[in-house]
Amino acid sequence: MLLPSCIIIRPSFRITTTFYKPSSHWRHHIVPINHSRRLSVPTFINSASISTASSTTVEDHTPSVMAQDGSTPHHPLQVAKRLEKFKTTIFTQMSSLAIEHGAINLGQGFPNFDGPDFVKDVAIQAIKDGKNQYARGFGVPDLNSAIAARFHKDTGLTVDPEKEITVTSGCTEAIAATILGLINPGDEVIVFAPFYDSYEATLSMAGAKITCITLRPPDFSLPIEELKSKVSKNTRAILMNTPHNPTGKMFTREELGQIASLCIENDVLVFSDEVYDKLSFEMDHISIASLPGMYERTVTLNSLGKTFSLTGWKIGWAIAPTHLIWGVKQAHSYLTFATSTPMQYAAAAALRAPDSYYEELRKDYKAKKEILVEGLKSVGFNVYPSSGTYFVVVDHTPFGLPNDVAFCEYLIKEVGVVAIPTSVFYLDPSEGKNLVRFTFCKDEETLRNAVGRMKERLARK
């Protein structure tokens, strides 16, 4: 398998109360070992000094199976080489630590409030009506039609709901189906760091060559000259996300136009993850597929969960012209085949919500964002602008911890608040060591309580 073209540096660290031992490839994940050790400061070391052998010393918590002779042999964890560096996700680890320490979870991006009744009622009725067997592989007709109508309303583009849309089990599966269906081993794919962690894992499964371009604070603007130097006839696709997780950046029309020009000139595809399209605060969201000459080379990826606070339903979709959606549909057929049937009917009802729903959604999230942003500033963080999503990235260095992992560990155990270390979103973790991500997809009382804890317990150094 081809390796990413970016230099990779991985941290080794130990954490208070729950001791963590570095795996051969930490970067994204933390593996618990025991509960008796105290914190030692994380240090960054070159990946060349870490063993990449499959016989890594990570403790296996899988129950042992009794052998025929009565002994209980220990079996090491087994994983294919293309995935051995990807351990339990940082989101699972941080959420578990939040529970263990009674911390307020402003880390993982799921709301602590429920979705609207008018959507849930349709799901309940669909279940009662017996819509509980396999759905059509690429989506029930009603949902495909609703997706096409919403896409037309948002972008002005008319798509065929029967030929240009595939419904998936969340946007994460839409991303996987797109990559596995359209990327061959050795194909170069450009990603913008920081990035959603499934991007790298899925590209690795596809055997892609990953080329990384870093978006840097304070505004995380597109480094167009660097992008020009990287895009070539060898580039198969650009995988992008707008509004952007974790930074909250929204790509401007000018930036999207520059990307589009390079893609047209070099015959490059775009995979555009737009799950936060309705959570845009400072500017209007623009789908790159709507730019001249781009629909024919773009797969637009989206989902229901973020907009309707129903992340557990896992309803996503891909929109693309027939010559691209075919590959997506083929991969989807052998990943999940079909998506939850009753929830698809409810998703169709959700997408037909009036504009007033989306206006109220933005209004509500803007108020939550203001509580968190003003609170973080008052605590002493350097807070970077967030134009979309429900995330805010801050610089934690005023508090004297050496990197993001150490800071987040301290924040959970000594302050009682959870954030996500952003180094997990980079090929080179050192690029994100000064940044952490907070989410404001929580009720206002939770946000105020979290800010209160930080004001009381977190001191600048």
From TrEMBL:
The keyword Cytoplasm does not apply. Residues 104-453 form the Aminotransferase class I/classII large domain. It holds the Pfam family Aminotran_1_2. Its cofactor is pyridoxal 5'-phosphate. Keywords: Aminotransferase, Pyridoxal phosphate, Transferase. Gene3D superfamilies: Aspartate Aminotransferase, domain 1 (3.90.1150.10), Type I PLP-dependent aspartate aminotransferase-like (Major domain) (3.40.640.10). One of its GO terms (molecular function) is pyridoxal phosphate binding. One of its GO terms (cellular component) is cytoplasm. It comes from the Eukaryota. This is Aminotransferase class I/classII large domain-containing protein.
